[in-house]
Amino acid sequence: MKLFNVYENGALRKVDKVDFADHKVFLVDDNKKIYLWFGKKSSEKKRKLSEKRAQKIINKRTKKTKLEILHQGKEYGSFLTMIEPLKRGFSESNQGEKRKELNIKVDDTLELIEAGITPDFEAEITLDAHKLSEKNKNYEELCRILAKLQLELINKGKKTEVAAIEKKTIEIYQSSSTYDELCWLIAELRLLKQKKDNN
């Protein structure tokens, strides 16, 4: 995740955290999505130039990137899960630890399967977690998937409110679980749900 303060002339300055001052504009780049946050007192010129800068970044990418604009006091959706972590900031070490790609030891499990040994529950989780990591979903997406799964199991298949999912997503995001832990927990809950549905 990259964070930038946008200057009056549209220049971007990389920052470690977002202070959400009402005269500022921040650009938050999470690869799949670029968020532009407009402070209440930020100038119209700064806002327009920040949109142009964001669009330039998007146009240079081969993968589809969405642009989301948020106004101070009217933040919504997935951005709400990010506010507190953005205030705290992402140091290089912290960011790497929290958002690293999964490094599950899958080789041993594959060797056992190739030898004709039926995988046990833990081996199934390992394989599913590894597959999930290969999809390169961002940290926030994993938090939301896990939140939805947890609530579905608690509510025993009943429809879960969007607000409840968002609240749970924030809790998981703030728990500072590593990327691999999230993949593992998602894989475990999916398999438990699958076994429950089959019974």
Number of E strands: 5
* Strands ordered across the widest β-sheet: 2-1-3-4-5
Rg over CA atoms: 20 Å
Which ranges are low-confidence, i.e. pLDDT below 50, for 5 or more consecutive residues?
91-104
Percentage of residues in DSSP E strands:
5-15%
Bulk shape: elongated
**What percent of residues adopt helix (DSSP H or I)?**
40-55%
* Count of runs of 4 or more consecutive helical residues: 8
Mean pLDDT: 81
H/E element sequence: EEEEHEHHHHHHH
- What class would the helix/strand composition place it in? alpha+beta
Q: Tell me the distance between the termini.
A: 42 Å
Largest sheet: 5 strands, mixed
Number of domains: 2
Explain what the structure shows.
- The chain has a 5-stranded mixed β-sheet, covered by helices on one side.
- The protein contains 8 helices and 5 strands.
- Helix 6 runs parallel beside helix 8.
- A hairpin with a 3-residue loop joins strand 3 and strand 4.
- It has 2 domains: 78 residues, 3-Layer(aba) Sandwich (Severin), CATH 3.40.20.10; 108 residues, no CATH class.
- With 199 residues, the protein is of the alpha+beta class.
- The chain is elongated and about 65 Å long.
